[in-house]
Amino acid sequence: MQSLNLPPFSYQTREQDDTTYIFDVLRKKYLVLTPEEWVRQHFVHMLIDRYQYPRTMIRTETGLRYNRMARRSDILVFDRQGSPFLLVECKASSVKLSQEVFEQAARYNHVLKAPYLIITNGLSNYCCAIDHAQGTYRFLEDLPPYEPAASN
Fold first, then answer.
1. Options 3.30.450.20, 3.90.1570.30, 2.40.160.60, 3.40.50.300; which CATH number does 13-151 get?
2. Model pLDDT for residues 115-137, shown as the tens digit of each residue
């Protein structure tokens, strides 16, 4: 897998039938190691290890409905009240983080209403604070600390 601009982490892989799997510490199972999964696993570990986000408040591939269609968010962090706090849309490192990617994440967040939104391909990361009441956003230089009170 490609080297990313995210902190390295200790991971476990295994091979089965010419397919590589990586262990997901949140779901506690092995998943097919795709380029997008490589980015997602790096980002999850960064949230836990570097930013001290509680592991128990992070979910991956959470289902949601947008325009009556089933969709999945890549990473969703909840605050201590159980409300969405941070939504992360992951792409493979080969995918350019375009306006289309940002709009996809924004559509998902229109449903979830997390106050923070991130898009990443492992090489570049964009983090925004979202003001849902005003319909505005501003880019942040770093990820927000895990402070549930700040999400209200």
1. 3.90.1570.30
2. 999 999 999 999 999 998 888 88
